[in-house]
Amino acid sequence: MSDSISVLLNAGNGIFLGQVEYPSDIYPKSIAAAAVNNDNKTDIVVANQGAHTVGVFLNFGNGTFHNQTSYLSLWNPIALKLRDVNEDNKPDIAVLVSWSAGVNIHLNAGNGTFLTANIYPAGPGPTSLAIGDFNNDNQTDLVIADYSSNNISTLLNTGNGTFNTQIIYSSDSDPIAVAVADINKDNKSDIIVINVGSNNIGVHLQCYNYLEN
Where are the transmembrane segments (predicted)? Predict the structure, then answer.
């Protein structure tokens, strides 16, 4: 089956049962899992690049899933993360949309459904999305690698599910992937970038609630 996701249940002895496929929208590109409807069952969320949607597969609780519910996420969703961005203890969806040059935030309505996206600009050619806390306020912030501008940018969370205007930091040539970790053991989120045009990785250390270039 094309344009689908597959689930392989763990048999418990290091092997997996045969895959079960579930139809998605066109060209599923990125996937994440979390309990999105407060029933303590792991659900699946997919970015469908070709259909410009995100799809939510709710878990029945027995290892099978409901058919996908689709939400428009314009345009060209290529990566997603699940995290509570508005302090209501429900995972929300952050979607990187390359044609719209930004990040869509779909807030969780609390019953397994999601609100229409709010979009935040994030550079002309975004390619990768990661999450962290970049100003030590215990809120979920976003970082985006932007291939076209040779920059990364952060979107700081205001605490109510909205984000401030992006803060831009220079990288080397053609940043294509970004990750977040505490590199220097100071309990602050640092940023690691793969720069394919420069054949290197870059590290941006967080210092006093901002990042070093």
Answer: none
**Overall domain count for the chain:** 2
Task: Please report which helix (H) or strand (E) contains residue 68, including its range.
Answer: none
d(CA 63, CA 191): 36
Report the amino acid identity of residue 39: D
Q: How confident is the model at residue 204 (pLDDT cuts 50, 70, 90)?
A: very high
If asked whether residues 133 and 166 sit together in one domain, one would say yes
For 109-122, the pLDDT digits (tens) are 988 899 999 999 98
Question: Is residue 5 domain-resident?
Answer: no
Write the CB contacts of 24 (distance below 8 Å, at least 6 apart in sequence).
3, 4, 5, 46, 48, 55, 68
Measured between alpha carbons, how far apart are the two ends of the chain, in Å? 46
- Is the distance from CB of 83 to CB of 140 less than 8 angstroms? yes
Domain with 44, as residue range(s), is 28-120
Residues 75 and 155 occupy one common structural domain = no
- Laid out side by side, the sheet with 141-146 consists of 126-132, 141-146, 151-155, 167-170
Give the separation between CA 211 and CA 173, rounded to whole angstroms. 19
Instruction: Tell me the pLDDT tens digit for each residue of 160-198.
Output: 989 999 999 999 999 999 999 999 999 999 999 999 999
Shared-domain flag, residues 113 and 146: no
Q: Judging by beta carbons within 10 Å of its beta carbon (0-12, 13-18, 19+), is residue 117 exposed, middle or buried?
A: buried
Residue finishing a domain among 120, 139, 165:
120
